[in-house]
């Protein structure tokens, strides 16, 4: 299929794990959602700093950990907020992929609009420890944990998500006539 | 195989004969709501990409509803910037202060029509689904993309059908139905789904009650909430609309029934809207503040229900009652009916329409250790002020009962 040509297919990096029902407020506290502009670099410093009162990360800790793949349980990015700041902050921190059991509707939408790939994998939290090195093919959903040697197959990226991410997100999807490209891919 | 109501509405918006759940389609939205909270980001995305507004001006509503009247210089500057950007992008339908209301209420006051696709940059945009429109929240980038291209990508949702039947008891209201539904559904039944509310009890529900349910059920994580447009909808709209509904042989992801006969007043206990228990379980808990109103329960029927318990009586010592009508139109109608005078005589503080008290961004905050009974839709820690305060969500009846007694009280016992 044509999309393979314009989609960077393989992703590798270290995993950063969090559990079920992580809210948008826990990904990035509301006090860092600046509503008159989006300062992505400032936001990245505060990722996950309120995740749990006892387990919140100090400023810059997520960045320092150098993790490029977030592994989450069910309903990642819940809290029914339309805000894009938490997902933008993940992108700014160099996150290349989210692997989760499921995402809230808004977070899934925001991730695709910002060209951050999402793979859905049942029970994924039990397959990775924080800091595991993994290799992923996002179009097939194949995931290899280099530390444990185990391999898994996630639900592959859908056709629409592949086109959206291949275009580089919503803005480029619109300017590059992604709708037409998607329709052509489906022919 | 027949089509669900959601599929029919999206097919119309996508200009296709037929769409199926799971499919991604591009729809031309009929209505777009932008507010002063997410609006500046919409405009900054437009600016960043050099986009122009290509949507027809009569389709967009810009509402000032979060920070008004401005209570900080920063808020005043932001509202001024919003006005300026509305001019730049030819958005003429601006609900200026004085002609304002909470955006969701303005959307359902002669703007969104049954059968349309209506979206807004706020998660409680589900409210408009009570009119028989396909309505959901979208992000600021989505809204900018919609203005620039006239289209929005949407995944056609599966539908979970919820049948409500039976009669509500005295002092049990639409809010209790919504809370009951939240307490019985699980994530599997709601996430990414359309929740279609049907059954013999729907025709008994007023439009105000339907708006409450469509608003509150956003808390389930559903994509949208749908009611069929019926005679009451047409009466509310002031003209006829054909009745659209799911086909007999449509396939639903889940079907469940909620019996209203035994429903008692319910509350979302702190600090999660899903933490639902009978009001009587918290009986006697001291209440510092009662918030009656906003977009979930700030319409005429809600104010009327509260006044039915408060008229001629006074708010308890040690408790304050704050009232926020959902819009200027509601406020004016409540004045004409004498409801506002009754509330003030009972000792209520009546404020202007805004999200501020519910959203915790302006007047009406609670302090550390304080307890608030609120008719709004969210009660996580810090939502309405101090993160050491507690919020119980309930109907207008239950809110009025708390104001009257100063403690959490089952309104049916008054």
CATH topology of chain A: Aconitase, domain 4
Q: Residue share in helices of chain B?
A: 25-40%
Q: What's the order of the H and E elements of chain A?
A: HEHHHEHEHEEEEHHH
The number of helical elements of chain A comes to 9
CATH topology-level fold name of one domain in chain B = Aconitase, domain 3
* Mean pLDDT score of chain A: 88
Q: How many distinct domains of chain A?
A: 1
Task: State the distance separating the first and last CA atoms of chain A.
Answer: 10 Å
Q: Got a strand count of chain B?
A: 18
Tell me the Rg of chain B in angstroms. Answer: 21 Å
Per DSSP E runs of 2 or more residues, the count of β-strands of chain A stands at: 7
Helix content of chain A: 25-40%
Question: Which CATH first-tier class of chain A would you pick?
Answer: Alpha Beta
- CATH architecture grouping of chain A: Alpha-Beta Barrel
- Give the termini distance of chain B in whole angstroms: 51 Å
Largest sheet of chain B: 5 strands, parallel
Which two chains form the greatest contact, residue counts included? A-B, 32 and 34 residues
Low-confidence stretches of chain B: none
The CATH architecture category of one domain in chain B equals 2-Layer Sandwich
């Amino acid at each position: 299929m044509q999309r393979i040509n314009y989609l960077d297919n393989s992703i590798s990096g270290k995993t950063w794990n969090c559990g079920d029902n992580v809210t948008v407020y826990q990904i990035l506290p509301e006090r860092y959602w600046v509503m008159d502009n989006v300062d992505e670099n400032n936001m990245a410093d505060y990722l996950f700093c309120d995740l749990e009162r006892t387990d919140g990360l100090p400023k810059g800790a997520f960045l320092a950990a150098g993790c490029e793949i977030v592994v989450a349980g069910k309903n990642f990015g819940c809290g029914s907020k339309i805000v894009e700041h938490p997902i933008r902050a993940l992108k700014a921190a160099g996150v290349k992929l989210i692997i989760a059991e499921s995402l809230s509707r808004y977070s899934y939408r925001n991730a695709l609009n910002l060209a951050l790939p999402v793979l859905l994998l049942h029970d994924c939290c039990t397959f990775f420890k924080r800091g595991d090195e993994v290799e992923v093919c996002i179009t097939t959903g194949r995931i290899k944990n280099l530390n444990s040697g185990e391999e898994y197959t996630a639900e592959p990226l859908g056709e629409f998500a592949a086109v959206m991410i291949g275009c580089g997100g919503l803005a480029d999807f619109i300017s590059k006539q992604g709708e037409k490209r998607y329709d052509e891919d489906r022919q | 195989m027949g089509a669900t109501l959601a599929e029919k509405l999206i097919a119309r918006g996508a200009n296709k004969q037929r769409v199926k759940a799971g499919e991604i389609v591009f729809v031309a939205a009929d209505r777009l709501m932008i507010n002063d909270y997410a609006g500046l980001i919409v405009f900054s995305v437009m600016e960043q990409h050099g986009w122009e507004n290509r949507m027809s001006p009569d389709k967009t509503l810009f509402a000032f509803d979060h920070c008004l009247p401005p209570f900080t210089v920063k808020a005043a500057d932001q509202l001024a910037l919003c006005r300026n950007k509305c001019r730049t992008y030819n958005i003429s339908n601006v609900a200026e202060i004085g002609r304002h209301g909470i955006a969701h209420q303005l959307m359902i006051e002669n703007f969104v029509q049954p059968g349309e696709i209506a979206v807004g940059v706020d998660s409680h945009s589900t409210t408009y689904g009570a009119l028989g429109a396909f309505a959901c929240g979208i992000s600021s980038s989505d809204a900018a993309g919609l203005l620039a291209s006239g289209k929005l990508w949407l995944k056609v949702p599966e539908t979970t059908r919820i049948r409500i039947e039976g009669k509500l008891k005295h002092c049990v209201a639409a809010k209790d139905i919504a809370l009951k539904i939240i307490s019985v559904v699980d994530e599997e039944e709601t996430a990414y789904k359309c929740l279609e509310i049907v059954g013999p009890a729907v025709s008994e529900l007023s439009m105000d009650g339907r708006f409450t349910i469509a608003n509150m059920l956003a808390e389930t994580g559903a994509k949208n909430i749908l009611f069929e447009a019926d005679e009451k909808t047409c009466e509310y709209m002031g003209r006829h609309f054909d009745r659209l509904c799911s086909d007999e042989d449509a396939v639903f992801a889940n079907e469940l029934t909620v019996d209203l006969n035994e429903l008692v007043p319910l509350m979302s206990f702190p600090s999660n809207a899903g933490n639902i228990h009978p009001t009587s379980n918290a009986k006697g808990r001291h209440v510092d503040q009662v918030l009656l109103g906003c977009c979930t329960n700030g319409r005429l029927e809600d104010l009327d229900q509260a006044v039915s318990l408060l008229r001629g009586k006074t708010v308890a010592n040690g408790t304050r009652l704050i009232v926020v009508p959902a819009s200027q139109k509601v406020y004016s109608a409540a004045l004409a009916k004498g409801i506002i005078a009754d509330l003030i005589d009972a000792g209520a503080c009546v404020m202007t329409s805004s999200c501020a008290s519910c959203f915790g961004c302006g007047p009406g905050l609670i302090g550390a250790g304080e307890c608030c009974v609120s008719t709004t839709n969210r009660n996580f820690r810090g939502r309405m002020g101090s993160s050491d305060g507690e919020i119980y969500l309930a109907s207008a009846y239950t809110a009025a009962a708390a104001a009257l007694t100063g403690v959490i009280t089952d309104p049916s016992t008054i």
